[in-house]
Amino acid sequence: MNLNQLKVNGELTYRGRKYIILDIEPPIITIKRYDGDGATIDINFFDLVTDPSFLPSKKMKKQLDDVNKYYTSLLDSLSEKEREEVSRRLEIIKPILVFERIKNNEFNAFYEFNEYYRDLLRNGETVQDLTKEALYERLAVKYCKSSRTVKRYYSSFNKAELENGEGDEGLISKSGQGHLYRRDNKILEICHPKHREVVLQSLTIRMDDSYIPIIKDAIEREYLSVKKVSKKAVYDLIEAKCASESLKPPPPITVYKLLGRISAKITDRLRLGSISDQKYQEITRGYSNNEALYPLHIVQIDHTQLDLDVLDEVGHVVGRPWLTLGIDVYSRKVWCFHLSFDPPSGNKVRKAIEQGVLLKKTKDRYNTHNEWIVYGIPNTFVFDNGKEFKNYEIERLIKDELKSHIRYRPIATPRYGGSIERLFGTINTQLIHRLEGTRKSTFSELGDYDPEKNALLSLEDVEELLTTYITDIYHHQPHKGLPLDQPTPMSRYVEGLKLSGYPEFISMEEETTFKIKLLPTIKKPYTRDGIRHNTRLYKSAALNGLIDSRNKKYLIKYDIDDISKIFLQHPETKEYHLVPCVSPPENTVDGMKESTFQLLKKQLKEQGKITSGQYVTEQQLSKAKEDLQRKYEEKYKKGRRARLEAKRHNFQVSLDIPAVNEPVDKNKPKSYKDILMASLEKEKRAKGIE
């Protein structure tokens, strides 16, 4: 994945012509034709990077001919042990990558090196005194490698980065792989003991098929548990099970070697539990609430459950949604958020990071007055100690994919998350507590108000209102934590960019690839019926050649926010292909969340129309939607009457907002946005805030 950054003297392609960047004065980029003496062009940064003709470098990307092919990933097909080796090699050469950026006079790189790699400097030495050769040698000593090996890692990374934008693939070990292609190889998949659909590691073995389920069961149920049974005890269990099935037990050394091949991180995590954090999580000793020095230097991410009852997509009150939100500590601007009924999880963190990295395009989506211009790759993520953050997949995404860093807040020290906690309070006070269905902050504030009966807004409504509030109000109002000469998050952010330049970003042409890379993965068989996932079937005629028995499994990526399709990795080309849902049909569940589908399925089960594990047909799904809508109509008649009453009083509950240049019609019914913004403006005037 190419992490792009526009720099002075850098090249770009715009409307089919090559340009050179003469100056960057946020938010304006000054460019000039590369092959002529034409006049310079001043263009807004956001307008430039969102133009369909924009390419961030002179190198044109290769387009795939097959529209169903998305991207190729060799890393996804590696075993856990091989993937860990790639991460270790990347960690070794990261200081060299930062050092190269310093040589290119990148403002942020100086701070990053001094913050994370100061141990590579000698007494009194500065990074400007350091040479690349000396850095090779010191990294070799630090990681017990030869300087030649470190150089080879760095060279392989650069070569892969230039060829396909995937430098990490150059770090894949190519030694000792001959055994992988033997015809008598069998695959032993080690799954999570509590989540059987999650494959932790795949091991190649050469044993009769009858031994595989016995060994697999002993490893998952006994060895990978906090009981911490010994290898000898595991072998005894395997020996007893073989005897009961009249099988000759395998030699003890075979089982011991097999257990030794399981990733140490997997065994420690499942056998030691929270104690393993001392070994695998970054040490917080000496952690200080470092001051952010430039935009996206430090981003804090956390979760909160909103004080609001919300309807789901089909009008059924589900309850309070969870908001995952990230804040740029330097400017106090909101970097990302993800809103759903799902509780905090690694999937929510991934979705929030996706939204933060990519362009928001709020004017196009919600007709906001302003553009939400905060996006790109942060230098450091700060998390609390929740298990959804201490997740090796999230760690790998941030460290390997984004090339960023992670810090964890010390336990029981909420002061280190003060910026984001205050933002949660501001959002509740200025927005959530003003909406229908609010639960307020305390029971005493709620009084006789019934949030559930007064719930009128859907999850999508709240997402739109929250986006509008952040983009048009919060980013532009004074913040007590900011300097007097830069009192608003917007002014602080723009002035900071003049010092540091724009952060690295994902170009629009690579957004689809980036979104797929962030999706969680599982392994599934592809039979004549198709791919079964959560009582849905997925199938593509283009992939009929992959149909096999249930013992053969393929790597699958799925999206909890859109169940209409999944992505399957071809075992030979390593390319991901789109596979649409066929039962129910793709168009029936297009854009539907997993949580909504499960709610509808539960409704059908309660009515006795399907049994556990049975597929949901198109007719059943449509009927379930109708039934829930009828239930909503019956249960919330009072709420519906409130809507009609509001219309009669010229306060229509709608989410429409006039275009920026559209004259305001004073007789037009006011929307929730208009009422909210007018209320906030009135408060500001009362407090004497311009």
Automatic annotation (TrEMBL):
Q: Which domain of life is it from?
A: Bacteria
Any Pfam family: Mu-transpos_C
Any one Gene Ontology molecular-function term assigned to this protein's record: nucleic acid binding
Residue ranges annotated as coiled coil are none
What biological processes does GO assign it?
A: DNA integration
Residue span(s) of domain Integrase catalytic = 291-497
> What is the designated name of this protein?
Transposase
